[in-house]
Amino acid sequence: MHPRNKKPRLAGPTTVSNDMNGRAGGMTDVDTNETAKSRHFSSRTFQAAPISNESKAGIAHEFMSDVQAATLDLALAGTDLLVQAKTGTGKTIAFLLPAIERLLALPPSSVRGISILVLAPTRELALQIEDEAQLLLAHHKHLTVGHAIGGTNINSSYNLLLSTPPTILIATPGRLVDLLSSPIPTHLAGKHTGNVAGQFSALKALIYDEADRLLDQGFKKELDTISRYLPDKNKVPRQAMLFSATVSKEIREVAAGALNKDYQFVSTLLEDEVNTHEHVAQSYIIAPFASTLPTALHILRTELATHIAPSQPGTGTKPASTSKTIVFFPTARHVSLAAELFEAIAKAAPGSLPPIYEIHSRKSQSARTKAAEGFRDTTCGVLLSSDVAARGMDFPGVTLVLQLNLPSDAEQYIHRLGRTARAGAAGRGVLVLDPSEEGFLRKKDVQGLGLVQDTEFYTTTSSALVACTSEIQRVLASSAVDRETKAAAYRAWLGYYNSVAKELRWSKERVVQEAGVYAREAIGWIGENVPDVEARAVGKMGLRGVPGLNIVSGKQGNAAWGIGDGLQMYLDTLAS
Ligand SMILES: Nc1ncnc2c1ncn2[C@@H]1O[C@H](COP(=O)(O)OP(=O)(O)OP(=O)(O)O)[C@@H](O)[C@H]1O
């Protein structure tokens, strides 16, 4: 079996009917555990659905989730769809299953090359969708699935697409653009006839997962290029399906361009769900930047201590923690720093932290995949993450999502939060903000989410927090955290907060001044000057002439540091 296919299959709740609009029938608004659990599942079974026995044999679930029930018949009929459904409610099967079924109804001769193209914004999500497709295809003898994602050898992508094109291709936009638009490398050209675009000549379905992310400005260029290489849909008709947990008004407008004009919009958000994650307990804590890491350390330890599974009588097993937390940071460099810091703390005091996993765009693809698999399989751990794991990633049993500092927007907050409480399971979210970031809570899209302040946090935990603070300061003052890691975190901080300065109503002077405070107080930077920043980067950020920077010319400083590093890294994490 494929190594990534080890995730446990979750059983759906057995009650609650919902009609084909996905509205749960006969339910009250009382948010007991039971109703919260069953809110997004239907009474429709896969066994009774008009699908092949091969597909039925590949699905481990008995009941459809409401998004699956609400979209199946429309999708089977070939209707273009724009679908909004809560995070973790089974959108992947909702788009893969009907797309596969529609191929079975066609004469085999017309199913050639790549028939289904699924686009996903991150590499990890693409691999996860491939896993789900492999399960669905387990009993379909002639249908195959493959991926084309960034961070892997491009020659193997060419070989896959040109010699054994899979029936279903899961791709990240950047890699697909490279494959479509660059000439085949000369050493491969002799081995293959035809080109990559030719493999899509009989495309039957185009699916966008995390559609709102794919359709925002960040991917526009790639998507335009891809569509130029795909066959004209007036000549080779194909179905388009766009799925996301968040669908803003603007995205709805852009989405219309990717769909037939008679497309259907299906939302399985319940009427009382102002937004997708109202039913996950969410709290926020106001902590100055210098206290963010001690606050996180304390929360991780509390989580570790409160989720203890009792020992099994007669088995000799010891009570063990089942805490699984994802901590989201604004940029990849902040993840690196926290990883070095927490690893050092765990080394000095074994057992005081859960096993640590680290994922972000500055890691190699193999390290990213290993971290994602390790965290997926573990029963206890903490995943330190940039936004690379914010969307679509399905890690079973996540008990807490901890978001540190300002999320890029309300949608991103919701997607990150959606990594917990999936498929009917329990979970909670905590957001830690600096006082200057409180404006995020007043945003219209955030107000309806049900975030409540944890006012008791500081009174009930003050001595533990003081201890965490001095523990962190000790480690930061030692050589355990590399000086260059701190410098890179400072520069990323500068880049990120410079990019959100307008939202925070900070002047350029304030950005620089706060960055200096962050360097000295939050990450223990020692020295007369703050870490150096290249003059070119200072210029690009519009910070020339602002006092408080340590500007160096050329590559004297950190060679890896470039334009708006914080923002760039944020974008990197989402790109292929
Ligand atoms: N009918 C079902 N019954 C029970 N579990 C299901 C069902 N369908 C899917 N699941 C499981 O629910 C989990 C979440 O599914 P999936 O990742 O497709 O959610 P999603 O809606 O795409 O989430 P996101 O919005 O985060 O991308 C997976 O572990 C999947 O196997």
Automatic annotation (TrEMBL):
Task: Give the record's keywords alphabetically.
Answer: ATP-binding, Helicase, Hydrolase, Nucleotide-binding, RNA-binding
- One protein family per Pfam: Helicase_C
Function of the molecule: RNA helicase.
Please report the name of this protein according to its UniProt entry: ATP-dependent RNA helicase
Q: What is known of its domains?
A: The Q motif is unique to and characteristic of the DEAD box family of RNA helicases and controls ATP binding and hydrolysis.
Q: Where is this region: Disordered?
A: 1-25
User: Which family, according to UniProt?
Assistant: Belongs to the DEAD box helicase family.
Keyword check for rRNA-binding, yes or no: no
Checking InterPro entries in the record gives:
DEAD/DEAH_box_helicase_dom, Helicase_ATP-bd, Helicase_C-like, P-loop_NTPase
Record EC number: 3.6.4.13
Positions of the Helicase ATP-binding domain = 72-265
Q: Name one GO molecular function term.
A: RNA helicase activity
The reactions it catalyses are: ATP + H2O = ADP + phosphate + H(+)
- Which Gene3D superfamilies does its entry note? P-loop containing nucleotide triphosphate hydrolases
Q: Where is the Helicase C-terminal domain?
A: 292-465
Q: What class of enzyme is it?
A: hydrolase
